[in-house]
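Follow-up to my earlier ticket, as requested here are the two runs.
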Amino acid sequence: MISIDKELEFELGEITRRTHDLNIPVMIIIEGAPASGKSRLSNALYMSLDAKYTDFIATRPPREADLRYPFLHRYWYHLPKDGDINIHFRSWYSQLIEYKDYRIKRNINADFKQIEDDMRNFEKTLTDNGYEILKFYINTDKEVRERHLQKLKNNPVLKWKAEEFQSRLQHHDYDLEMEHFLMDETVCPWTRIDFHNKEEAANTLYSSIIKQLKIRIKREQENKPQIDGMFQRDFKTGLFTFDFDKESIGKNEYKDMLPALQSRMREIQFQLYQAKIPLVLVYEGMDAAGKGGNIKRTRALLDPTGYKNNAIGAPADIELAHHYLWRFAKRTPRSGHIGFFDRSWYGRVLVERIEGFTPASAWQRAYDEINNFEKSLYNSGAIIIKFFLSLDKNEQLERFKERENNPEKRWKITDEDWRNREKWDLYLEASEDMIRKTDTAHAPWKVIPANDKRYARITALRTIIKICEEHLAKADKRV
């Protein structure tokens, strides 16, 4: 047991109740070599915090199931909601060291330097969106660790723990690996804690947390975000200027072309599964542009055990209490599977900007955050293709009326759809900004004129097949 200074423990309780009331999510990272004392410090801290809003997340060595998801998937999955606290006992830093040691590159087509960049961007994305990340490195001399390990070995009940520690120590010099990360203070700086005296170490840990959270609370009280969509008064689109009449396919031609493309899409699905390549398909566009119908034709012949269709609506309360990317990061497909997104994380720079749900600084920052998020998926081996289905305003009106007059389709039209139509020009400008700022080599946008649904469906299917074939050919060359 570690004897904790009662005044510090009381102050820590007070300050974390304050962060809870202010809806500040807190992530406490505790790293340290095996047998360094970090487990005792972590437990003392865990016991001092309110169990109602504190969670303890232990990073174990990656299992086969973990390797089928993007590197940061489980950390996105375990994000604390607003006002909650996560204690991360070992973290993405330990995970990367283990990936390096065991030369784990299964399902990861990037080098480890790119994953380091993903980790740095992950922390920046969280801190820019209100997460408080406190990082601690527990340091102890190797001689002290050896004595601790020997004590564990001599205890029949705890002998297994010593063997687990030694297994990790055989594969790497954790101190040397971590020193590289400890020197990087570009986002969230590290606090080093010497564990030679456990009471002093605990006091340092508690004092550091209290100090940093006090600074954060003060900053929170001074922050007054500005709500502004920052739209132009007389916006003229330079992107959505199609001659819609030219982009069409006849009914008979469509019937001839579609089955072959759908069959090829099924073959692509199996090839992706064999190559362990995940495919992320994002569909955005005007209301009634045919996103759902497009997805339906693409997945018509697919094996349903190998894909997930994500129809994205307004966020639920639990989703609003997390980072906006949380609900999407949880749904990213594992290796060899396909994830369809009927609307997506781009709501941050579309509906949230247009409706004033998000401060100007937040939606402006989101372009880079989304680019980094997609890059991390790409670095973990994913193919990402994004479609924007563009519709003429008059065509949308016709489709709205058709839905109202058709009992089988009436459920598709709502008062909100009519209200959104009044903001057509704002949606057009927000969409153009989105495409221009997030069209990247690793996650390209494909803008498709969609007045003719048949043309849009055939074009999307052809695009998916072409891009996947190119990636599969590259994967074959690597093998």
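Run two:
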Amino acid sequence: MTTPVNLKANTSSQLNNSTGRAKRAVLAYSGGVDTSVCIPYLKHEWGVQEVITLAVDLGQGDELEPIRQKALQSGADESLVANVQDVFVREYAFPAIQANALYENRYPLATALARPLIAKVLVEVAEKYGADAIAHGCTGKGNDQVRFDVSIGALNPNLKILAPAREWGMSREETIAYGEKFDIPFPVKKSSPYSLDKNLLGLAIEAGILEDPWAEPPEEIYQMTKAIADTPNQPEYVEITFAGGVPVALNGETLAPVTLIDRLNQLAGSHGVGRIDMVENRLVGIKSREIYESPAMTVLIQAHRDLESLTLTADVTRYKRGIEETYSQLVYNGQWYSPLKAALDAFIQQTQVRVSGTVRVQLFKGNATIVGRKSDNSLYNTELATYGAEDQFDHKAAEGFIYVWGLPTRIWSQQTRG
């Protein structure tokens, strides 16, 4: 393992051209190889005088105190931890559920939703500590670099953005060798070819054999969902109550937002619900095979959309579908803080005023099936919908309606028959 030649000269030149010198930087820190190596790299190659690391707790399940200590061992001048799970659910996940946000109509955006919140906390810390730069460990091929850079620029355009891994040109082996020069601990463990990103809303899995879109994902990659063969042989039902488009209770029990998501993750995941295998279109222009696990978000969006079918008028429902697609693209593309996103938020919030009620979902062998819904705001009128003796629909009115409705088509037909 060797360190790249002329590393300092090349990267310093790039930094001067793109961002200028930074005195104090706040680094988004995960404890992994790249973000750990970023600490000495920023100091020794780019001349950053002080590096403050920030580990953000989004419910990924990691013990953050060891991560905080590792940052200090890796040369950080200060190491911070922020628990923002509640904010993550209330201010990012719940609005996405109200928007029925599914990228390319499949992916519930668990990872994408985390990035604008991390960026927000980074900016707040930078402003509090008087930092002039924010750093992250994103590479130049993924979506996260865009999400971080655009969000930071929207929140504080005066902050420099430093992305060493985007410019240092080191392989994984070379990156580890560079870190070892500065006594950064890299625990010996079984090598995994997979790249994982987990938070309370889901797990994203890529790389390794998954880069072949024909290859079936091995069962070992999954963490949040059971294999179908291991799921119960009897269906289980869950009733999800919404208030203003926001989930507030499971099976009649009112729950705090984080608890609700966590409990539904476990419940749906135990039935194998929430696995997604897709080839998606990355913002940077390439296609990528991605595996996702997102049990709770999968069920909640499906249930919420069904409740809307009961409580919204047809024209609002149809129009909102287009808004939802645009909204999902904005989130995926890192434009959470954009003017268009703010405008769409206003529309979506207006539509949610009457979206309250309960949806009954059957969980069984990887499927979440809506089997019932009810609401005090229901627009469903049994007396109009029934074919029984209680039918109050005026059948005689249909003939005149059909005549007027079909008039343009009949006129067109008469003029074009020849």
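The only thing I checked on run two: The two ends are 80 Å apart (CA to CA). Let me know what else you need.
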